[in-house]
Amino acid sequence: MDEEAGQERPVKQVIVIRRDLRMRRGKEIAQGAHASMAWLRQRIMPHLTPAGRADQVRFSEAERTWLDVSMRKVTVKVGSEQELLDVYDKALAAGLVVEMITDRGLTEFGGVPTRTCLAVGPDYDDLIDPVTRDLELY
Question: What is the CATH number of the domain that holds 33?
């Protein structure tokens, strides 16, 4: 796919991080990376063969553009678990791919599983923006 095709209808993924948890910076980065990759893992793992090949994996046009052209990400923040859940519900209602990350609490959070962040998309900007445009950039 050429770069001009991706510019016609821009694509992105939005990472939403909970700031109320006061995670260490490295923890936030790791959680955001988990969120960014979760959709791809969900798409590939059911098709993984014993030989380690992923056959018959289907991607939308927006996902293919994102993978081929940009892998553009925007990181925003929320101030509570409820705000994170609200974004999750809004993204689902809009028909978007959304992946919630729940940390197991092994290094932070005292062993308590904790929802830390989520990723919306990848998808077209005009589909994601109604869900995330009011969130503050991280």
Answer: 3.40.1490.10
